[in-house]
Amino acid sequence: MYPNLYEYILSFSRLMVLHLKMMNDFASSKSITGPALHALFQLSGALRTVLSHVHDRLSSPEFKVKGGLELTQIDQSVSLLVRAAEICISETEVQANIIRTLSVLSERPDCCERLAETAPRLGILLGSVTQTSSSVERELVSSNRLGYILGNIMARCDVARVQFYNCDVSCDALIAALEYYATKRFTIRNQMGDSIVDVLTKLVRIVANRQSLGGILLKLLLAAINPKTSELEELLFATLGALHNLSYYYELNEPHEAAPNTGSIGQNWKAICGALCRILNSDHNPTRSEVARVLGNMTRNSVIREAFYEENGLLILKRCISSNDDELIVTACGVLVNVLGDWTRRVPFQELDGPLMLRQILHRGVTKRDWIMAGITCQAIWNYLIDAGDILQTLSQASIDCICEDLAETLDEETLFNGNKPDAFWEEFAPVAADLLERLQFGISGRSSTGETSEDEPTDRDNFQEK
């Protein structure tokens, strides 16, 4: 079978490269119309069909030995197809067919590497699609697949990502496309199944932190805040993923953000925080754990923490950590680590029975040997005890005894692992647990009742904050 397949691909690849070159050369001086345009449509469709049916065989070792040289010709056709898509800017159906072929090529790592070289041009092409199409439904085909192609490129090639984001024209085109689709009805769908939500989901995944992005993400967050369909749920997850990445790297107090641009992330952080709190306070929203992760990053900043408190954040966190969802408990504790760094919030937290709940969560983590849960709870307890002159006034004797008992049990390496090597999660948890146990023991023995600590006792727990 392979000899026949090999001969077919051999002949096709030579003709494909030749004809694409001829058409691109011709289009450099004249517009492609009539038979030539139809031939380009058929050529791109034939290539897509062949690759769709023989993708697995093309990847086999036997075929690579025989056909590697000719497959290189197919890879080289990538830039020619991109150029052809640019040429057909006023021929939406032909352009869409070419872009569909490029989306298939982007699934192959070798072709994706060649596509990466054209990433900025693909971004500009995305912008042109929304500007030239006669209807929203017709442009969805190309926009959806361009988002898919760029997503594949960004996932596989760091260099392409940097080049794309350093090209202002490409990034502006991407932002313009996001703004365009964010204002459309989310129920719009074409006959091929492409929808507004599909496009937005793909574009959000490749977006960078640029001017007006904050307003766009806030709009998407509010539109999908109560997802009624799987598509809206996916859009909400994608938007939260973008916010998580942006909130990890973004510094709200950077000098150049003293006066945030209209629509920027800096200007919208507070409103975004409010929307996130609404989601976190909803019992049945499937994205609550992801929301807590985003807030774990955002609440590192004092301005955002104040906005979080104004949204009744402490009470919302109490609901989260009292749930039966282990993932939500862990991510909510990540927010608590930051919140309890503010000494003014420790008394309200105590009034909500927070310390008792932390003790219960620690026991839950220890019992399940969930070292991530146990570790983040230790960090929250440590921050709750920072600057406490008398630990017995901050934690009850019963709570201290229970916590110390749990910590001592978890630090008994021999009993836990029967002489085997501990797992990596426990090794990260153990130093945190040991520090907290020492802190509690010193506190109840009176050694730190005046704020004194041992020479070796760590005093800075900023590194415990959720990232």
Descriptive overview:
By secondary structure, this protein is mainly α. Helix content is about 75%, strand content about 0%. The chain has helices at about 1-25, 35-60, 60-85, 90-105, 110-115, 120-130, 135-155, 160-165, 170-180, 195-205, 215-225, 230-250, 265-280, 290-300, 300-310, 315-320, 325-340, 345-350, 355-370, 370-385, 390-395, 395-410, 415, 425-445. The longest helix has 27 residues, at about 60-85. It is elongated and about 90 Å long. The two termini are about 55 Å apart. Residues about 255-260 and about 445-465 have low confidence and may be disordered.
Relevant terms:
mainly alpha, 467 residues, elongated, disordered C terminus
Our estimate of the beta-strand percent is under 5%
Largest sheet: none
Note the overall shape: elongated
Number of strands: 0
The averaged pLDDT comes out at: 83
Number of discrete helical segments? 24
What Rg, in angstroms, do the CA atoms define?
28 Å
Structural class: mainly alpha
**Helical amount:** over 70%
Low-confidence stretches: 254-260, 447-467
The helix-strand sequence is HHHHHHHHHHHHHHHHHHHHHHHH
Distance between the termini: 54 Å
Concise structural overview:
The protein is mostly helical and 467 residues long. 73% of the residues lie in helices and 0% in strands. Helix 1 (2-27) packs antiparallel against helix 2, helix 6 (119-132) runs parallel beside helix 9 (168-182) and helix 19 runs antiparallel to helix 20 (371-385).
